[in-house]
């Protein structure tokens, strides 16, 4: 890494106090929504318990990614055209309805269709939320703001995941009902308390101009490839990783509670959220001082290395160690990448840049479950070896960003201190 810059820096507390009220409203809505993210982490377990094969479950999880691809493109356009608030309200309301439709679905075609609709709905509002954050927060505070945003998301996820593991051992209905309730609550918060954000931007920069800009932006291409490759690792959470943990047969007696493998899986992904909540925001004071591409490269390598460790053991301590390394990689890479693309995007195209970048995650959501499930059935440890390779490839991709463009974004990130 490059040596840290010697600029004077504001403190974390000073930065947080400077963040505007709409940011905190968005933060609260995100926490509520993420607390109730019960369905996606347990979807493979739920579908296999309903009698569907692992291949069928992989198809259903992949259809979520297919819907999200369409949703991210639509959401990016709606965010620039209708405004950020309207897009968030529409997407969250639709997602709440789709969650309950998925619970009601029984046949495989119905499950696949409703999962695709759910992915499209969720994919619609994520780019709008990211774009609204960039609209209302001064550029100098983007890194801090994105880290705080993820803190809220992961704190909610950490609390919800542990609860979801317990609920899954009793009744899957409450997973779906809780997910729908928290999502519609986010919709209400957005409708009554969030500003519109920028809108009508498509008149200034129509899709043709945006596509030409995206095609010629080599730094964005490198970032897109890195996010896609690293996301192939992350999507294993809901497919092979959940099966890996539950098939260990691990149990834990904790203060009178007898925790089954599903609950231990919930604790592991909850630990991921706890670490992000505790350490990511303070660490932005360090990571934002370095070259964004090199910081992301280190993070992506650790991300893959963490999951690669799953091949080395299946004890509870080993699983927690692997998750810890994985999470450190996530903490290092994600806030910088969010600020990186927000700086990279021309303002009239910000929603579409963020929506296009979201496609990288969503495309990984389509192919990742199939690749992971195939390798897992072939040899479970092959999945974790592949994750290690993907981490290295993801790091190499972002390092291909041109030094000139990276230097410009690096200076922008440093100016956010």
What percent of the residues sit in helical stretches (DSSP H or I)? Answer: over 70%
Separation of the first and last Cα atoms? 18 Å
Spatial order of the strands in the main sheet?
1-2
Residue runs with pLDDT of under 50 for 5 or more positions: 1-8, 402-417
Description of the structure:
With about 425 residues, this protein is mainly alpha-helical. It is about 80% helix and about 0% strand. It has 18 helices and two strands. The chain has helices at about 10-20, 20-35, 45-50, 55-80, 85-105, 110-135, 140-170, 170-195, 200-205, 205-215, 220-235, 240-245, 260-285, 290-310, 315-345, 350-380, 380-400, 405-415, and strands at about 250-255, 255-260. The chain has a two-stranded antiparallel sheet. Strand 1 (about 250-255) and strand 2 (about 255-260) form a beta hairpin. Helix 2 packs antiparallel against helix 8, helix 6 packs across helix 16 and helix 14 (about 290-310) packs antiparallel against helix 15 (about 315-345). The model is unreliable at about 1-10 and about 400-415 (pLDDT under 50).
Keywords:
single chain; 18 helices; two-stranded antiparallel sheet; 417 residues; disordered C terminus; mainly alpha
Short description:
By secondary structure, the protein is mostly helical. It has 18 helices and 2 strands. The chain has helices at 12-18, 21-35, 43-49, 54-81, 84-104, 108-136, 142-168, 172-193, 201-204, 207-216, 218-234, 240-247, 261-287, 292-308, 316-344, 350-378, 380-398, 403-415, and strands at 252-254, 257-259.
């Amino acid at each position: 890494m490059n040596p840290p810059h010697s600029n004077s820096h504001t403190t974390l507390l000073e930065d947080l106090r400077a963040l505007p009220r709409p940011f905190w409203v968005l933060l609260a809505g995100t926490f509520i929504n993420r607390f109730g993210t019960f369905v996606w982490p347990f979807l493979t377990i739920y579908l296999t318990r309903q009698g569907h094969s692992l291949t069928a479950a992989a198809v259903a999880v992949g259809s979520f990614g297919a819907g999200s691809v369409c949703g991210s493109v639509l959401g990016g356009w709606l965010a620039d055209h209708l405004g950020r608030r309207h897009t968030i309200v529409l997407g969250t309301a639709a997602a709440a309805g789709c969650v309950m439709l998925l619970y009601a679905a029984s046949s495989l075609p119905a499950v696949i269709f409703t999962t695709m609709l759910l992915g499209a709905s969720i994919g619609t509002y994520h780019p709008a939320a990211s774009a609204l954050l960039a609209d209302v927060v001064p550029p100098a505070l983007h890194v801090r703001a994105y880290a705080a945003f993820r803190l809220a998301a992961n704190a909610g996820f950490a609390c919800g995941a542990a609860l979801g593991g317990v609920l899954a051992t009793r009744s899957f209905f409450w997973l779906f009902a809780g997910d729908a309730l928290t999502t519609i609550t986010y919709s209400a918060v957005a409708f009554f308390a969030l500003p519109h954000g920028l809108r009508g931007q498509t008149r200034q920069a129509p899709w043709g101009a945006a596509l030409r800009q995206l095609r010629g932006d080599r730094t964005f291409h490198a970032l897109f490839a890195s996010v896609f490759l690293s996301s192939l690792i992350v999507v294993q959470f809901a497919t092979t990783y959940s099966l890996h943990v539950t098939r260990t047969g691990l149990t834990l007696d904790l203060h009178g509670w007898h925790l089954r493998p599903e609950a231990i899986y919930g604790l592991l992904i909850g630990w991921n959220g706890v670490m992000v909540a505790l350490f990511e925001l303070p660490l932005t004071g360090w990571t934002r001082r370095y070259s964004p591409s090199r910081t992301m490269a280190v993070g992506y390598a650790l991300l893959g290395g963490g999951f690669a460790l799953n091949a080395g053991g299946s004890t509870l301590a080993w699983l927690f160690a692997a998750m810890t390394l994985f999470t450190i990689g996530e903490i290092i890479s994600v806030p910088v990448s969010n600020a990186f693309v927000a700086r990279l995007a021309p303002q009239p195209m910000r929603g579409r840049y963020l929506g296009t970048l979201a496609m990288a995650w969503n495309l990984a959501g389509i192919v990742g479950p199939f690749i992971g499930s195939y390798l897992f059935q072939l040899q479970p440890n092959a999945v974790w070896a592949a994750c290690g390779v993907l981490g290295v490839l993801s790091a190499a991709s972002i390092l291909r960003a041109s030094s000139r463009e990276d230097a410009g974004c690096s200076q922008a990130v440093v100016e956010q201190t």
